[in-house]
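// run 5 | inverse folding | seed 20
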């Protein structure tokens, strides 16, 4: 586990009225992703939650040791060290100070996932511990954004753990998504998954300061993106995908029962 002292408790949260927080302290939000830089896809929402008083942490499943990006580094320990440093830079830019995980090899999460001793099983056990302390989980949808196997596994394992928790202690689980029709007009994102806007019933609004924090976080990931991409990414997402709020859908929607009441009569 990689961790630092949690943020100071404040008094507000974007998704929960202040009156609901009572004496329990700030709501605990856990962002669950696969690699350093994955947080960028919801970065202004993370900054907004932290600014409004949530106790936010980011859990990276891997250190990103297989993804040299634009660095020219050979996959391995040196790259992992660089990317963890970039992750710390990003979480601090977003106004939080807790980083967890980064314990499993990049690209390993789907390998022998059903076997004892697999990275997937170890990650699920870690999630069980962390989710028991959380009120809200933010993660990839089942599409993994653009289909990355580690992204998909993080989403699947998070869902598996949350669905097994009793209602009294179960955190809210939200999948980040791109509303259909809002893909940025760049070739690199042509094959990213989109979601019917009718399903994206949850959102976290952000202000200009939150977007500035997100842009600062993007600047941290020097191994992954060149200077132009780091500078342009957040403004592009703001103008196309987000438009003032990051979009999510609930993992577990309304109960479905068959037959419907009218047919049963």
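// decoded
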């Amino acid at each position: 586990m990689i961790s630092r002292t949690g943020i100071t408790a404040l008094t507000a949260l974007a998704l929960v009225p202040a009156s609901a927080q009572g004496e329990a302290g700030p709501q605990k939000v856990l962002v669950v992703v696969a690699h350093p830089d994955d947080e960028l896809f919801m970065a202004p929402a993370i900054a907004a939650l932290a600014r409004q008083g949530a106790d936010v942490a980011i859990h990276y499943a891997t250190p990103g040791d297989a993804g040299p990006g634009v660095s020219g580094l050979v996959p391995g320990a040196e790259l992992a060290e660089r990317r963890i440093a970039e992750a710390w830079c990003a979480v601090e830019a977003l106004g939080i100070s807790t980083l967890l995980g980064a314990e499993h090899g990049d690209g390993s999460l789907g390998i022998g996932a059903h076997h004892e001793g697999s990275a997937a099983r170890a990650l699920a056990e870690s999630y069980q511990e962390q989710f028991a302390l959380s009120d809200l989980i933010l993660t990839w949808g089942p599409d993994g954004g653009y289909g990355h196997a580690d992204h998909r596994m993080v989403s699947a394992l998070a869902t598996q753990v949350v669905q097994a928790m009793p209602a009294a202690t179960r955190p809210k689980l939200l999948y980040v998504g791109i509303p259909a029709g809002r893909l940025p007009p760049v070739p690199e994102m042509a094959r990213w998954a989109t979601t019917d806007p009718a399903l994206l019933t949850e959102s976290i609004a952000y202000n200009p300061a939150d977007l500035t924090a997100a842009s600062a976080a993007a600047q941290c990931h020097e191994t992954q993106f060149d200077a132009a991409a780091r500078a342009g990414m957040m403004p592009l997402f703001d103008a196309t995908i987000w438009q003032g709020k990051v979009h999510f859908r609930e993992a577990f929607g309304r109960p479905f029962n068959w037959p419907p009441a009218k047919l049963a009569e």
